Amino acid sequence: MHPLIQPPFNQHPHNETPEIQIPQHTTVIISEESHEASTNVDLYRGTLGDMERDAEIIEQKAPTWLIEFLIKNKIPAKEPVKVSFILKPHEGSELDELPNGNARLTANRMLRVRKILAYIVEKLELDQPSIPLTTSNNTTNNGAVNINGNSVTEPTNAKDNGGGSMTATQPSTECLEKALGDAEKNTDEGNEHDNTTGNNSQSTAAAEEERKNAMKPELWLELVCQDQILPPTMTLATIKSQIWKASGDLTMTYRLRMKSV
């Protein structure tokens, strides 16, 4: 690394980078990440005590931006890592495919499942069911939900695909408007008995909050990957490394949320 450590370079002020005593057995790893690979690849692995002996190896394996940051105090501009993925309807769901051949997409690796669900709702122009369905609490360690083999009810024009009894209800704007209209009617009737403006405001705010929650796509739509239901907060990066665990484009399917009969 001697050729790289030549003046002029910007030395960090001592008050910004005070000396820290780190144990010699501390593990030092230089790894490489690629959007085509499912996991990181270690380029160097050693301990702090080995770094002086392995200086030549570290010089070869360390990325240029790391040297520039440590020696020249230059923070590199890094493009966000993107993940390619494929969206298609879940088998037996009978939801439509995405229009205009947009099944293969690319997005920031930190994109969460709830944003993908909102995209699906927008592109397919889906109507929300009047009552959100719930999934089982059979979660795995990574937060995904296992799909059980029980008979299920799916609120769509689903057909029996041999996996069990299926009943279907068609979500529509009329059902949603009726449900919201009943909620508003009940709220108005309750407000007639309120004695203060504060109570009226609280009731209205509660009804509005309930309405907003009922409109969330994650309450009635779900993504599935490798037979696991993905939680709304999971990112593409986590899905690819913890659920998909394979090279190539990540594949996910979407369907209306299901519940055990």
From TrEMBL:
Keywords, comma-separated and alphabetical: Repeat, WD repeat
Bias-annotated ranges (Basic and acidic residues): 183-195
Keyword Repeat: yes
Composition skew (Polar residues), residue ranges: 196-205
A single MF term (Gene Ontology): ubiquitin binding
Comp. bias (Low complexity): 135-152
Chain intervals for the UniProt region annotation (Disordered): 135-170, 183-213
One Gene Ontology term from the biological process aspect of the record: double-strand break repair via homologous recombination
Pfam families in alphabetical order: DUF3337
PANTHER family in the cross-refs: WD REPEAT-CONTAINING PROTEIN 48 (PTHR19862:SF14)
The protein, known as: 774_t:CDS:1
